[in-house]
Design goal:
Elements lengths: L2 H12 L4 H14 L2 H19 L1 H10 L2 H6 L1 H5 L7 H6 L14 E5 L9 E5 H17 L8 E5 L2 H5 L5 H10 L1 E5 L5 H14 L3 E5 H13 L9 E5 L5 H11 L2 E8 L3 E5 L7 E3 L4 E6 L12 E7 L10 E9 L8 E6 L6 E2 L5 E2 L2 H6 L6 E10 L2 E8 L6 H15 L4 E6 L14 E3 L3
Parallel strand pairs: 3-4, 3-5, 5-6, 6-7, 16-19, 17-18
Antiparallel strand pairs: 1-2, 7-8, 8-9, 9-13, 10-11, 11-12, 12-13, 14-15, 16-17
Helix pairs in contact: 1-10, 2-8, 3-4, 12-13
């Protein structure tokens, strides 16, 4: 019997969270669900709420009319609404708030900034609970139940800047049976310790930043270290290229499943056994693909990804242009499926002693920087970092720049020089991709 699962879910239910019961419901529904029916109901509910309670959408939807179409075919009605961009969110922040916000347990969040464009958002407890349930479901579908051993190779700025983790995090990790490995500081000694931890814990699942677990696999091969195979590895945060997948699967002797999501809308899609492509959980988000002129594209054609979050009623994100590109498969009885996702490519930064730093560290440093429109971090050498910033205002908060320098030095060394360049634009690569962290150190 999985005692830790029972205690973990029961305790969080007693704390007022709904995701334990939602998670149990999703497991049951996933086996019998008619996905299009679920999505239609959730989309209709979201659009009704937005029309009634979100000023930005009230104005737009009153001009559109077509209330009967909204009820009968919300997917078609959705296409009549304009695309939501980060600039529109910044300019219409107050109008995008729900009028019933005071009744919701809401909080501020920030986009991950992994497309180089950080923004501030509002989310609520309902969004959190449903997103957490979907996250647990994705892990369940690849072979790890709550309470079974798991190892996370993830990033935590707090773990770098503080010597210890608070007791609540330790207790939560104990109940969920999860061990953490810091992806923001990976030197040879740490990576050897990570492999020893994996062998000791024998996890059902390793959840990891794609580039970090790839570097760990390369290290294990170069040092000829044996690894106790987990049931599965789930990667996230960056593109998982074929050569990365091959290296990881060869060294860890298990299947790798990639996951796609963002801080703005939660976990969107995940590879799972028996499926080709990325399955989009129909309770979380609805996806559209459009061309560069915002015209809808058919299945099988690559274009810009638009996300409509079906769970955030505090600040609805409807037809949100997330900054990635992808291809949808033809309709599937189990829901929408991505054939392909072209997400972000980033580099790991390197210090003189061989420590590798995952790009997400700098992503965290840009959270809640409302004055930044775009940014790019470039490592010129072991001792020089250039930060290009497209500002939204000429009044730069110097204390935030000083904080960025201070936290960069903690990671890269006290002799590291950080130079800021304020520019009008940051170019994409020849393929149209945007790289927000680049290392020029070979």
């Amino acid at each position: 019997m999985n005692i830790k699962k029972h205690i973990y879910l029961t305790l969080n239910k007693l704390r007022g969270f709904r995701y334990p019961e939602i998670y149990r419901d999703l497991i049951k529904e996933e086996k019998s669900i008619v996905a299009s029916h679920v999505t239609k109901e959730l989309l209709t509910k979201l659009l009704r709420h937005s029309q009634k309670s979100v000023p930005y959408y009230t104005n737009l939807m009153n001009e559109i009319g077509c209330d009967e179409l909204l009820e009968q075919n919300p997917e078609v009605y959705l296409s009549k609404l304009p695309i939501l961009t980060k600039d529109i969110i910044r300019k219409n922040f107050e109008e995008l708030k729900s009028l019933d916000l005071e009744k919701r347990k809401w909080y501020f969040n920030a986009s991950g900034g992994s497309t180089g464009e950080p923004i501030r958002l509002i989310q609520d407890r309902e969004y959190f609970d449903r997103s957490q349930a979907v996250k647990l479901l994705y892990s369940y579908l690849v072979g790890r139940e709550v309470g079974e051993p798991e190892v996370k190779l993830w990033g935590s700025e707090r773990d770098i800047l503080e010597a210890t983790t608070n007791w609540r995090a330790i207790f939560s990790g104990f109940l969920s049976n999860t061990a953490y490995m810091n992806a923001y500081q990976m030197n040879p000694q740490r990576m050897a310790a990570y492999i020893r931890l994996i062998n000791q814990k024998s996890p059902k699942l390793i959840l990891a930043y794609a580039i970090a677990i790839y570097e760990l696999a390369k290290f294990a091969e170069s040092e000829q270290l044996e690894i106790t195979p987990p049931n599965a590895i789930m990667t996230s945060a960056e593109n998982l290229h074929p050569w990365m997948r091959e290296q990881i699967e060869r060294m860890f002797q298990c299947k790798v499943f990639n996951r796609y999501g963002s801080r703005e809308v939660g976990d969107i899609a995940c590879e799972r056994p028996g499926y080709e492509g990325f399955w989009i959980a129909p309770w979380g988000n609805y996806v559209e693909i459009v061309d560069d002129y915002n015209n809808p594209l058919p299945a099988g054609v690559e274009g810009n990804i638009l996300i409509t979050s079906l769970t955030n009623f505090a600040m609805p994100l409807i037809r949100y242009k997330i900054g990635d590109r992808g291809v949808l498969s033809a309709n599937h009885s189990s829901g929408q499926i991505f054939q392909k996702i072209s997400g972000k490519d980033t580099d790991m930064l390197k210090t003189k002693d061989g420590t590798l730093t995952e790009s997400g560290y700098f992503e965290e440093l840009m959270y809640f920087k409302d004055w930044v429109k775009n940014y790019q971090v470039i490592q010129k050498s072991y001792s020089e970092i250039v930060v290009k910033i497209v500002p939204l205002t000429s009044n730069y908060p110097l204390e935030e720049l000083d904080e960025f320098v201070e936290k960069t030095k903690i990671l890269m060394g006290e002799d590291c020089i950080v130079n800021f360049e304020f520019v009008d634009d940051i170019k994409t690569t020849a393929s149209g991709k945007y790289r927000f962290v680049i290392s020029e150190v070979s």
